[in-house]
Amino acid sequence: MELLIGNESGTKAYQPAVEEGIEWSTERRSTPGKLTFKLIQDDVLDISEGCAVRLTADGDEIFFGFIFKLQWGKDGMVSVTAYDQLRYFKNKDTIIYENMTAAQLIRMLAKDYGLKCGILEDTRYVIASRVEENTSLYEMVENALDQTLTNTKEMYVLYDDFGKLTLKNISSMAVGSPGAYLMIDEETGENYDYSSSIDDNTYNKIKLIYDNEETGIRDVYIAQSGANINRWGILQYFDTLSKGENGQAKADALLSLYNRKSRSLKITNAFGDNRVRAGSMLVVNLALGDITLSNFMMVEQCKHTYKEGEHWMDLTLRGNQI
User: Fold this and answer.
1) CA–CA gap between residue 210 and residue 226 (Å, rounded)
2) Which of 57, 89, 211, 314 has the most CB atoms less than 10 A away?
3) pTM
4) Can you list the alpha helix ranges (DSSP code H) found in 82-130?
5) What pLDDT is attached to residue 320?
6) Rounded CA gap, 162 and 308, in Å?
7) Whole-angstrom Cα distance, residue 163 to residue 63?
8) Cα–Cα distances in angstroms (integers) from residue 36 to residues 3, 57, 63, 234, 256, in the given order
9) 90 burial type by CB count under 10 A (0-12 exposed, 13-18 middle, 19+ buried)
10) Would you give the distance in Å from CA 213 to the centre of its chain?
């Protein structure tokens, strides 16, 4: 492994003495990639907030970002927290845009805030118009990606790939190749925590409203599952619509997404693989409490821990059944 930190002016790069236990974590939505580690402060090391940090492991480019927090302890160790470019998507702004795809929106925001773009796959769905007022860049992008999902049934993941904003369809994010996909099973994961519930993120009735200024009438769109209402009672999701949204299509899509048990699967201390990040698709083959999994699942959260001669990862997963 190699961890390098640039000085504030960018004229020097340091390779500090780092305590083992470097952690790199990612989440699929609205969270920047984070790198945390501890190093030994000496007279040569000249770092501060804003300095660039680069981590590579086994020749793989893992993380590129900037220091946002430094914390000194009595033991002479300095705790460092660095984030990738997506940290700047916490900035808030007000924008109005028309006839843009989610990918085009991301490119526009990146240009406005001086951020670098890599591969941005074409999301195809064109958003007619939208007003985002006093909203974080994250929320703007998530709103656009949610509309894309509702209208195309295609899910996209935004992440930072070693200093470049990247947007990919989840179908492009399988780890491995046909016949050699990365698999999580009883042998590769030391432990797991699985739960099933209808108490959170489960809805069998969707109700959306839109105050139509042209007609002066409130439009109401409803989608529901009579079978699951009989099983669980009414669990209603309610929201308002923006101009130009297809109310019934969105209600149907939300019912398809939420009309099921909420299941959570967390894998701890799986063998580490540098290719895995939030948004990655892995094959999971596990017999759980009430179901048996043998299919692709998406990584919602991922934490890598690097130690001398060791590499582990903790995963939170979701999929067709989770």
Assistant:
1) 24
2) 89
3) 0.88
4) 102-112
5) 59
6) 23
7) 8
8) 11, 15, 11, 44, 38
9) middle
10) 36
